[in-house]
Design goal:
Radius of gyration: 16 Å
Structural class: alpha/beta
Number of strands: 7
Largest sheet: 5 strands, mixed
Distance between the termini: 33 Å
Strand content: 15-25%
Order of helices and strands: EHEHEHHEEEHEHH
Helix content: 25-40%
Length: about 210
């Protein structure tokens, strides 16, 4: 049977990746449409501002190394748990200095906890980041399961390649944040990555829809 989800009622300015507004522009000037024609670097300040515009549950962006360490050693557990308790879902933009990814978390009313790894470049050969994130997330989920006796845990990874250039990863993250928020608000029973694929093609012009 299909389960319907019921939602619970230091920005790192040194990180840059994926294109978008130039670093010297203020985040107040950022808009999704404005990102489409700019090939400058998108800073973590911009990513945070854009993602929070679409989803107030968003946690501050962080580096790949930082999230791997904190998921593994448990120092991020309380932050994620507080967001999940308040919203039922949350998301984090992750940058390794050249490329943006996103990890999303969802806890359902049925006490199921899932993590989603979104890379707009899809499943790239020789890219070790997804495997490292999966390992860290498995450790985090196991620790949460021991504490909360969860009914089910899952990790989902995006396999589809949306980004077809070398600089728009930040734009794809911004779009995915909007779709993620809509998906949660609608309590859709369609799997998220399938829903994301349906929402837009690899044409960046689709962001305006």
């Amino acid at each position: 049977s299909m389960k319907t989800r019921k939602l619970h009622d230091k920005k790192m300015k040194h990180m840059h990746g994926g294109a978008g507004p130039r670093n010297d522009e203020g985040p107040g000037n950022v808009s999704l449409s404005g990102l489409l024609t700019d090939t400058g670097w998108l800073s973590s300040t911009h990513v945070d501002d854009i993602m929070r515009t679409h989803d107030t549950s968003t946690l501050p962006p962080t580096s790949l190394t930082d999230i791997l360490n904190k998921l593994t050693d448990g120092s991020y557990d309380r932050t994620i748990a507080k967001a999940l308790h308040k919203y039922g879902h949350t998301q984090i933009g992750i940058c390794d200095d050249v490329h943006w990814r996103m990890v999303m978390f969802l806890q359902t009313q049925e006490n199921e906890l899932s993590a989603y790894i979104y890379d707009p470049m899809g499943n790239r050969e020789n890219d070790t980041a997804p495997a490292k994130l999966q390992t860290a997330l498995k450790t985090w989920l196991a620790r949460r399961n021991t504490k909360d006796n969860l009914n089910e845990t899952n990790i989902y990874t995006n396999m589809h390649k949306y980004q077809t250039d070398s600089y728009n990863c930040g734009v794809w993250i911004a779009q995915a944040a909007r779709v993620w928020n809509d998906w949660n608000n609608d309590c859709s029973v369609t799997p998220f990555f399938e829903h994301l694929y349906r929402r837009h093609s690899t044409d960046i012009a689709d962001f305006s829809s």
